Amino acid sequence: MAETRPGATSRVIRWIDDRLPFVNFLNHELNEYPTPRNLSYWWNFGSLSGITLVIMIVSGIVLAMQYTPGAENAFDSVERIMRDVNYGWLIRYIHMNGASMFFALIYIHLFRGLYYGSYKTPRELLWIIGVIILVLTIATAFMGYVLPWGQMSYWAATVITNLFSAIPLIGPGIVTFLWGGFTVGDPTLHRFYALHYLLPFIIVAVVLLHLAALHRHGSNNPLGIDSKGPQDTIPFHPYYTIKDLFGLTVFLLIYAFFVFYAPNFLGEPDNYIPANPMQTPNHIVPEWYLLPYYAILRSITFPILFISSKLAGVILAFGSIFILFFLPWLDTSPVRSARFRPIYKWVFWLLVIDVIALGWVGHNPPEGIVVTVGQIATLYYFVHMLILFPLIGKLERPRPLPSSIAPAAVGGGARLSGAAAPMAKS
Amino acid sequence: MRQHALAAWALAVVLLASAPNLAAQETPPLPHQQWSFEGVFGTYDPASAQRGFQVYKEICSACHPVKHLFFRDLAAIGYNADEIKAIAATYQVTDGPNDQGQMYQRPGRPSDPIPGPFPNDQAARVANNGALPPDQSLIVKARHDGPDYVYGILTGYKEPPVGFKLLAGMNYNEYFPGHQIAMPQPLSDNAVTFADGAPGTVPQMAHDVVTFLTWASEPNLDDRHRTGFKVILFLVVAAILFYAAKRKIWAPIHQD
Q: pLDDT-based confidence at A426, cuts 50/70/90?
């Protein structure tokens, strides 16, 4: 199957390809695309995210056919979908839990990039485009969460849009502009709906850029060294198509478990109470995937110089993502993979623990020990990014890198020049 | 008596809204009940759900609507078409306008939503000292540990412990956040006579009405559990096949 050449099979395809090299393009990028032979299952999460994005768009379009984006009707229209639309409950639970799945996937994808130094030269733009996807996804998810117009929807919208009021002078004006009125209301819901429908297609466009940048230099790999020749790579198809397909079914098993047996486990019960502007919930919490940012936002309980505590919290919460854009230059180590970085290998896990701690802080009411933990964890996050990354790169003595992927991956054998050849049989 | 109950409810709503710190006071862990709808193969017990509907109709519906339910939905808990018609016909529904431009009353039909105790929210507020008795058709999904919580509230009425300051018009409830609940104990022994001979005890009524309200919150649970089992089975088989295919395809790479 790897032997197939476009044009050989059909004169029609050859005719089209001569004018628009579409088949040739697909063959080049999906079939024979040379991929490092040693990618682990941690490399499944990019394609899984892409597939989940498609699931979200398809289920979202179907929901949009039944949903009414008005403050009077939104909540009831969601209940109509749940009760009276054929398989409406299934589509909605797929979409609702799909948001959580998508974040889980891209967070794992991001931490995989952090561990194996996938952001380092020549893949800086690939990384930056990925961070742009993260920012767009957060905006999309937030606006989608507002649409059912439950209590958490309403108050999340109120809290988050109010963040902009911290900006000096123009802040309050911006908030009124965002709301389309003097409070979160019908115009806010309508515009969030329009944008929630628009943004995923922009995400698709940016994902295509992400893929274009990826295919320029190909995937990084667990060793973090460049391919030295054909013995280091295998064609994408069938090796990684089948590996991705297996990974996909395992992922879908977990996804299906949530959809069918714990559909509301990841959500807040309060969102099944219709939005009530007159009654604030006891405890406003965002969905789990935004908890770390929320913790950073609330951790600044004191003014810093002339900056109010609220504005400082907003700056740091946005900054925690913004700082990722500069990671390729903050990390001064020339070695990509943490496998060969004796210090970073351990420090990486401190960041994982730190982010989980921030999530725990964001979930709990800001009282007592929670505040202290939140402040320490926030401080650590920025110390890790701004001090540890540059410093470790300078201080650390990396272990010697293997000379090529092939011997390291297979333990000595070098008969690999025709990696695709054995596949011609099967 | 009923006015008194409604006023008490209004107080409860106001108190709950204005005193978030009360919620922080300790409540014992909710005792866990055995529910028929739990677990991968869980389904609603139709007999229990029907008894629960009777409890709702005869007691809860005095104050609480079930806005998202239609009479036709009752088919899912085992009522047949004639029974549903008969149940619907016991309600009066406002329809119209007719040819003369007038709204008019007519007996309910299976296609109607189940009417609530009040014609609109304002009427409910006027009758309840300004508070709105919450809709019950999503109550179980709108609370943490919904089924156990609602059961806990319905069975958690007790004499206040010595030294506990109970405000006027309030009742002591073990599982209510802050323990002060304005709704007087709604269930009492033999308040409902079940046609199938089930005992009219408070725990029995509470269990049945929670089954009914859980169904009202999540009417597609049976379908969801059944479909999910097939989907998961399919995916397990697919995963095994893909894993075997992956092993076979990669064999030459791993051998080298």
A: very low
**Hey, which residues 171-230 in chain B have their CB within 8 Å of chain A?**
217, 219-220, 223-225, 227-229
Q: Are residues B214 and B141 in the same domain?
A: yes
Interface size between A and B, measured as CB pairs under 8 A: 91
The per-residue pLDDT for range A236-261, each reduced to its tens digit, is: 999 999 999 999 999 999 999 999 99
Q: What is the DSSP letter of B70?
A: B
Distance between CA A35 and CA A72 in Å, rounded?
Answer: 53
Mean pLDDT along residues B17-30:
58
- Phi then psi for residue A102, to 5 deg, are -60, -45
Tell me the helix, strand and coil percentages in chain B, rounded to 5.
50, 5, 45
Contact criterion met (CB below 8 Å) for A204 and A57: yes
| pLDDT over 80 (residue B256) | no
Q: Is A219 a catalytic residue?
A: yes
Same domain membership, residue B246 and residue B234 = yes
Domain that holds residue A39: 32-223+230-278
CATH number of the domain encompassing residue A167: 1.20.810.10
First-to-last alpha carbon distance for chain B, in angstroms, is 86
Q: Give the model confidence (pLDDT) of B31-90 as tens digits.
A: 999 999 999 999 999 999 999 999 999 999 999 999 999 999 999 999 999 999 999 999
* B30, B35, B38, B42 alpha-carbon torsion, rounded to 10°: 180
Which residue among the candidates A28, A190, A215, A345 is catalytic per the annotation?
A215
Chain-chain contact of B144 with A269 (C-beta, under 8 angstroms)? yes
Interface list for B 103-162 with A (CB within 8 A) = 134, 138, 141-144, 146
Number of domains comprising chain B:
2
Residue B166 DSSP label: P
A333 flagged as catalytic:
no
Task: Check whether residue A92 and residue A166 sit in a common domain.
Answer: yes
Report the complex ipTM: 0.88
Tell whether B214 and B227 lie within a shared domain: no
The residue length of chain B stands at: 256
Q: Is the pLDDT of residue B14 over 80?
A: no
d(CA A239, nearest CA chain B) in Å: 7
Q: Are B141 and B128 in contact (CB under 8 A)?
A: no
The pTM of the full predicted model, rounded to 2 decimals, is 0.90
